[in-house]
Every structure is written in C-alpha cells, then in structure tokens.
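Newbie here. two chains, one complex. Structure please?
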Amino acid sequence: MVRVSIRYKLLLVILTLLLIPWMGYQYVREMKAFALQGQEEALLLTAGAIATVLHDRPELFSAEKRGTGIENDIGELQVKRLDHPLTMDGKLEDWGRLAENAGHYSVPKMLRKPEDKESDLSFNHILGSWGRYLYALFIVQDDNLVLRDTSYRRLDNSDYLRIYLRDANDTMARYAVIASKPGRMDVYAMDEDWRYPLTGDPIYSIVGYLQPLETGYAIELRLPRTMVSGDARLAIAIADVDDAKQRTLETVLGTSAANSSTELGKVRISSPEIDRILHGLDKPGTRIWVIDQNKYVRALVGDLTTDADSETKLTGSNMKTLQFWMNNFLAPLFTEILKEPAAEFKDLPDDTRKRNEAVFNQVLEGKPATDRRRSVDQRAELLMAAHPIRNEDKILGAVIVERSSNSIITLQNQLLQNLISITVIVFALVAAALMTFAWRITRRIRRLSKASGHAINPDGRLRDVNAIPETNAGDEIGDLSRSISGMLARLSHYTRYLERMPDTLAHELNNPLNVVNSSLENLGTQHPVVSQSKYMTRAQNGVNRLGSLLASLTEAGNLEEALETEHHEKFNLNEMLALFIEGFQESHPEFKQGFIVQLPQHQVIVEGSPDHIAQMIDKLLDNAMDFCVPSQPVSISLSVWYQQAILKVMNIGKPLPEGMQERLFDPMISLRQTGDSRSHLGMGLYIVKLIANAHGGTVVARNNEAGNGVVFEVKLPLA
Amino acid sequence: MSRKIAIVEDDPDQRENYADAMTMHGFEVKTYPNRREALKGFKEELPDLAILDIMLEDEPDGGFDLCRELRSMSKNLPIIFLTARDSDIDTVSGLRLDAWDYLTKPVNLQYLAVRVSSLFRIVETLSEKSETVDKIYRLGDLMVDQQSMSINWKNQPLNLTLTEYWLVESMSRHPGHVRTYDHMMQVTRQSLVEHNTINGYIRRIRNKFKAIDSSFDSIQTVFGVGYRWKS
C-alpha cells in the first residue's frame, strides 16, 4: 500500500487552481477578440460618420481634374498637414516626428547619373502645409557639400535644389535654390537647361535654408500655397557637385522623373475643406483617409503610432497596493511571457494602398468594409474600416479609418498581468489556508489514531476509555472519535463482563455444587451402607474436582482484587528465592531430578508483595515440572541487568509451538494434554503474568537456544 | 436441652441439607429463606447460633445486614457466615461485624458441625467464666486459651475468628516448625482452600496482631511451603 498523506493529496488538489489562470487567459483572449470586433465596429461607425459629413458634397472631390489612376501618380508629392507654422532656421525640431519619417513617403528618382561611378547621393524629404505656405524638408546624404562660388554666373556648378513647377495653365517654371554659405539660400528662376538664372533678381516668395549635417545637409523650403494650388504639378530635385575644383554636375536626384512636364508629380495637399472636417478627428493612433472614386487619396490625417504617454491605461481598475506590488514583483515574468506591442512601427500609405485593394474595391462598390492586416513592417496589427461617400446614387469616394490594435493588446496584457497577479495571490492564500487546514486535520486524525492505538494495551486490555481526544469536536472527526470512544466503552463493558464471567460462573455453579455435596454428605450419614459404595466415593471425587476447578476459576479474579489492595514492601528477592526453593524442594520430594539454582552473591531488592511473588514462582516451577522430561532438572537463575531483576526458569522438554509464546499467558490457555488427572484450567501462567505486571514487570516465554526446552523469563524492576 | 440453630439460606435445597445435617448432629434447627422472615423469627425467639448466607434472594448483602441486626439483639450470639468468595471474607473483617467465623462454599457439613460445636463450647466457656489453667499455654507474649478458644498477645485479647484461632493455635503449638499449606488447609476445616486463601488468613491474623503490637513479626513466611511461628 502506497502511503500518501492527506496533506499531499490536498496539495495535488490545490494544483487544480492553476486552471484559473488558464481560464483567465482564455477569457482575456475572448475579450480581445470581442474588443477588436468592437473597435472595428467603432471604426466603421467613425468612418460612417465622416462619410455622412462628406455625403452629397461632390464639390469636395471636383476641385481638380481627375487623374487617370494610381499608375499616373508616380512622383506625387504628399503634403502633410501641419498643426503649426515652421520657421526657416535649418533646425529640424519643429518638424517633429515628420522629420524622422522623412523619405518614407516616396522613393527618389535619378534624373542624372555620373558616368564613371556610383552616385553617393540620396535624400529623404517631407512636405507639409500650414496656412498659406507649403513647407518642404530635404535631408540630403552627401559626402561633400559644395557651396556656390559667387564668382561664377552659372549656377549648375555647386550643390543646389531644383524646383520644377507647372501651374494649372501648363506653364512651366524652374527655380534653383542655392546657398553660397550655410543659412538662408538664394532662389532664382532658371532657364530650361538649369544653367543661368532668367534674371539676376532673386525670388523672395520662396524661402530656403541650408543646414550642414554630419552626413550631408538639410534644406528647409517654404513656398506659398498659391504657387501650387489647383492642378499644379511639382517636382523637387537635388543637384550634386562633388569636386569643389572641377565643379561638374554629377548627379541629380528628384521626387519624380521631371524630364517632361507630364511626369511631374501632383501635389497632394489635402483639400482644405476635407482637412478642416477631418482635422478635429485627428487623434493619436488613428489614421483617416479619404479617397475618391479612382482610389486617389484626397485627405489623410493622423498617425498610427501612439505616444508612450498616451498609451491606454486600464481605467476603473481597482489596483490594490498588494496587487501593484505583485505586478512589479512579477514584472520579469510578464516581459518573458507577454509581448509588449511595438510602439513604433512603419506603415507607408503608398505601399498599403496596394494592399487594401480588396477593401477599396468593396467600399467603392458601396459596401462598408472592414479588414485587419499587419503593418508593412509586420510589427503591429492594424484595424481598418471603410465607408463609402455617396452623392445621390453615385459613389464619390470612401472614408477609411485605420487604427492599430496596440491599445487593445496593451489592455489585454494589463488584464493578463492583473489576472496573473491576482491568481498568484489567491493561489498562495488558498494554498496556505488549505495546507493549514490539512495540517490541522491530519494532526487531529493522528492524535485520534494514536489515542485509539493506545486505548488497548499490548495485552489486549482496555486502558482509559476516556482518553480518546476530539470527542467534543462537532465535525466528522468528532463523530469518528465519539464512535471510537463509544465502541471502546462497549468493548470495555464487554471485556469486564468477560473478565467477570469465570467469577460469576463459579458463583452460580457453587450453589448447585454445594447442594450436591451436602446431599451426598447427608446421604452418607443417613445410610452408612451407601457411604461405603464406590459410587459414593467417585461422586465425592467428582464434586471435589468440580470444586477445585471452580476455585481456580475464581482464583485469578480474587488475585486481581488482592493485588490492587496488597501492601507492598521492599524485600531481598535473592534471599526469598533461596528460601522458597529450599521449601519447595522439601514439599516436592516426588520430583527426583531436582533443581539447578544460580543466584547472585549480592542482594536483589525489589518492591512488592512477597507472598504473590512466591505464588508466581510457585506457578512457574509447577509449570516447569509438568513439562520437564524425566531425569532432567529444572534450572532457576536470578540476575540483575539494567536495574531489572531477571528471573529465569528453564526446563528441558517439548518446545513451544509457533505462535503460542504470546497466547500462553492468556487465561484458559493450556498446553497440557487432556486426560491429565489433575484439574487445570490454564490459569497458572495467567496468574504469573498478573503478578509480574502488578509489580511493574513483564514475563515472556521462549524456546531455549538449543530448541530442546522452554525458558520463562520474568523481569522485575529493582526497588 | 438441645441448642437452637437458625439457618438463613435462600436456596431451599442447601438450606434443607444444612438443616438435616444439623438435626442429625442433635441440634434444633429453624430455617429462613430471607432476611425479613429471619428477622421475624429472631424477634419471636433468639437462636443460640445463626448460620447466614450473605446473598439472600434479592439482597446481595442481606446476610451482613441481618448480622448487624442480630448483633444488636444479642452481643455474644455466635454467627457463621457462608461465603462464596474471598472478597466477602475481607468484607466480614472490614465491616467489623464480629462474626465468629465464616466458611466458603462448598460447605463440608462435617466441618460445619465441628465449627458449630466449637463455637458452642466457646460460648459455654465464656458464660461459665471458669478458667481451667491446664487448657491455657503461653509462648512468649502469646497466650492461648484452648477452652474459650481465645488468644491474648501481650495480655491483650485478640478478636480472632474461629478459623483464625485454629491457625494461630496450630502454628504456635509447634513453634519453629513449618506448617505447610496442606496442613493449614486441614486446620481451617474447610473443604477447598487455595494457597491464596491461607495467605489471606495469615495476612488478616498479622494485621490483628499488629493492631496491638506494630512490631509483631512472630509469624514467618516460608515461601512456597507455608508458615511458622518464630520461637
């Protein structure tokens, strides 16, 4: 039987509590799906709301002629709507995040390449508009900045910026923005070959500012919005001269091919009207597009990235101190298992437009659509909802609202963190409570089990029945101990009844025996002839035997009573034993083989009743003589071992049968052959045990080492 | 004039057997089955000697109660208890009922008759108050009056029962010699006596001596054999 303590079983049961976090995880996942769906719906509602504002306002979409589609939009210049004016000082700070994202908005086109080497020129640019101005920032990577040498009339022998501009009337204008020193730049209208200025007068409506950088330089540019209004097309290029001595123009890199006026990019300044409408909806993490029927982007506000400080916090969360502490404590664990959403990710409108073809097509057919996709750099998941804008039966365009699911993931992670923290706390508390409980239960059960074990002494006799603990407890253990206690009480009654049985029996038998006896006596007296009869003699013998049987039956009971009341005295067991054996030998002359006696030289003082000790020895010697083979003496020895007097009585004879060593001392157990002329009830060794125990001693029987005899060993404590 | 004996015993067979035996020995016998009838009989006429069973019908200690009542009627009336167990003997001693003797069942009727005769002789002696010197012998501090079956220790009378007297007399008659258990069993004039019963008698005898003289140690135990009177 494998022994498993209740404690360990309960511990195993406690482990099932670990299902709680799993359950919570499932729940949070469900919730996330639900939240995403909710957000999708919210986005769709937003898109719908915006679309509603734009419904039936074709003028918003007709301010410029239709392009022919996406394929013609190469070189298109996206103009960001700024929320503040910029100063032309070469510092990039006021561009904010736009400066960091410069260049992610389009791919520069090579207009002129050096013949003999790979060009080292590249730039990032960004366009923005605020109020009456259009701003541009060009961050140019150039290994060698060559500034204008004012002694030359030609302007194409230094690094400069070209502006290709074709107004709504198809009139082409070229401007060179050039610097002879870092800082404010000069602007000239240029000829077709970009060699000489048309006039010597600089143009002041365009402002440029050059700021050298470690990897090259930055140019800030400001144009009046009027220059690029309507259907105007614009391209901006950087011309690069690397050798300050030869000053040959090596590379020209532009926002579009710009070699013919048709290839100039449209300027995508958000339409002011739509912008105005959308402006109020611009919030971090949300990007709103308005496209027209040709999937041409009419307006684009907002940014998908969220600022760290505007991250969604769990509102209404009753974050307790302990839990907070737990969250901190478990922080390493959380970073291990929970993936924080990327606060920064890249998602280019140009590229994404192609990805959302399906959504665009669906929405432009007049059906609201939603979609989820990974951001271009795969670092975030984006939600998008699209809603068509109608004008009577026609579909003017669509509003597309995008939002990253980061806030939801953040929310989910916080929920999970809280859940894990709470689970850990609850788990610890419940485990502690259950373990305490289990400890108490097992302790009580152990106490009960110990007490029950002790309730019956090794002889099978009941000790104190009232020693069972827990009988006042109101639970099942209490019931158990009460039932054990009750059981012991009943057992005790029964045992007492059994113990009294021989006595009671003897008592009850005594009276009829007395009748028989006295009747026989009277019969003999009245009829002397009868008393001569052998039958009379046999009847008398029978009565006497019956009487002695009854007497020995009561002897043990009487002895027990006597032992309880007996006065104890200290005496020399050694001397007593010597006298006893001397007298015993005298009174048993028929035992020819005699006794071998080994007694120590010193006194062996024990405390007790000498009469009863004598009686005990008498029974032991009687027993030894009865089982001794003829011609072999009985050995008696006394010794002292560890504060105990050890009395051994040994006879040569038949060894004890297996399993009898213990039972031998029980009442009414006898190994004597039936038919023995003497009356025996097997009470002799029981009396030996009673006396030994009453003196705080023990008695055991065993076969001797040679296996040809039996040794009885009585141990009595020394006084 | 024959002596009158009252026998109180609830078992009719035993009662009649005792009565028959006593009648055969020439005593006049009256029998009672229980305490109430016995008491009624005693009030009409006191017997010369009473033989009482301790357990009487529904009264476990009926014999003891009867003994007390009888003692209140007559101080010197000999009473013999019939007991079934040794513990009753202790009770008889312990209650100081002044019973004159007790017998354990099964009762040998011969011995019973001897006892009754002996007790009557004691009563006679006591009433005559005649000290016949030849029946008295002394052994140190011990004085044994064989006529009145009484014993004095250091000139103080001991209140011994008949059986106890017989035992002391038996030991003191052969001082220094061991009286074996077997011999002492004969002396007690009871049919069946265990060693323990003898030990019990000796214990009670010693206690009675020690009540007078705490240094009493004249009765020596010869373990496993018997007792002897130290000469």
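Moderator note: The mean pLDDT of chain B is 83. Residues 194 and 218 of chain B are 23 Å apart (CA to CA). Thread marked as resolved.
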